[in-house]
Amino acid sequence: MRIMKTKTLVVAWLAAALAAATLVSQARPQASAQLPDTPAAHQFSAWLTAFNSGDRATLSQFLEKNYPAYRGTIDREMQFRNMTGGFEFVKTEDSTPTRLSATVKERDSDQFAHIDIEVEPADPHHILRIDARAIARPADIPLPRMSESDALAALRTKLDHDVAADKFSGAVLVAKNDKPVFAEAYGLADREKKIPNKLDTRFRIGSMNKMFTATSVLQLAQATKINLSDPLGKYLPDYPNKEIASKVTIHELLTHTGGTGDIFGPEFDAHRLDLRTLGDYVKLYGTRAPQFAPGSRWEYSNYGFILLGAIIEKVSGESYYDYVRDHVYKPAGMTSTASEPESEAVAGRSIGYMKPEGTWTPNTDTLPYRGTSAGGGYSTVEDLLRFANALENHKLFDAHYTDLLTTGKVDTPMGGKYAYGFEDRVLGGIRCFGHGGGAPGMNGDLQICPRSGYTIAVLANMDPPAAQRVSDFILNRLSEK
Length: 481
Fold this sequence. Notes:
The protein has helices at about 10-20, 40-55, 55-65, 75-85, 150-165, 210-220, 240-245, 250-255, 265-270, 280-285, 300-315, 320-330, 380-390, 400-405, 465-475; strands at about 85-95, 100-105, 110-120, 125-135, 170-175, 180-185, 190, 195, 205, 355, 360, 380, 410, 415-420, 425, 430-440, 440-450, 455-460. It is an alpha+beta fold. It folds into 2 domains: about 10-135, Nuclear Transport Factor 2, Chain: A (Roll), CATH 3.10.450.50; about 205-475, DD-peptidase/beta-lactamase superfamily (Beta-lactamase), CATH 3.40.710. The strands form 5 sheets. It has an 8-stranded antiparallel beta sheet with strand order 6-5-18-17-16-15-14-13, sandwiched between helices. A 4-stranded antiparallel beta sheet has the order 1-2-3-4. A hairpin with a 4-residue loop joins strand 17 (about 440-450) and strand 18.
């Protein structure tokens, strides 16, 4: 969920897409932009031509000839190419004979990026590295706003284009002052059976579940059953690693500053279907020491939210799933949100589709046993609007705790701040809070913008950044008022 640099471009871009935190523009790059006459610029131009061609053989041959240090696969580069639609060169940021930093813009979205390339000094100037990272909209490229009717018309045009290109399948809801002004579903919930997506289709939501977990923790804090400054060991006295138990606070778990690490990797892959309860995760990962001094920095931690779920269970005396059902979903009127095991039939739940090698494939073999307090489960765009309305109308707790939940606390690498299970960011002058989620075959985003009165909920049953791109598109065009 964090923007990062990597020598494998697609990995960087998936991370940036999930971050849900970049400001972008609809303006096209300046046609007069020129590349310098250097070896690095020549290689960049040649790479961009090969990449933009969209031809597998052309790109593969270029990489083999010009980038012997490359350690990725052509499948991943083609996935990256299909995700972005290629890039348009905008301007040179920095240049030496062997290095070039350029600003580019995705052809298929508003997303801007920096691409850095370094080449060998000697002819034929082989490429040593290419790094890509998503960036904020350049200050010298304006971000136009539209009337609501024009913005929604542009959204409809974009969605029609993306659906025709098989780049979006899901549901989109835009509300103004609690009431929907745009609500449409696109694509197929089941490609084999040709079952269409509908507004009440249940989509897997990934890390968006963190909002429900944080809401639950603050409900218990309002009830004086949890103190946010307490160490987690006060509530989980038998926690295996005593350093984490004694030093990591509830506040740090909620803000990803506790150093508690992730859950994904070889251990998760080996035990994916054995991890059935939050306690199972604690048994598997609970002996780990902090990855850094608690409170010293921000680093996204799925395991931290597993621990919050375990604390909810301990304090409330209920399972995590029962607690969020009775204290979050029911008060908000959310009738289609839950985390039932993947083995159970759930009416209206879509199949997630991933495209690792150019062919849409169900993501069934990547899914956990069930969603957790860190993410997973499923919801609908209509239920997400109900959740947003319940928060803003203080149906889940009072105004003080609503502000505490959603107001940014810690700076993040994405350019915004992280609150408690919510991202808090300013998009072109408009403050919005919410959370995205994504994994192979699923992507979603919820953004609540109090000043403008808009709420945007987008869910997709395909790889990131399908939903994120739609959410960003409409957020960047709607009026501030």
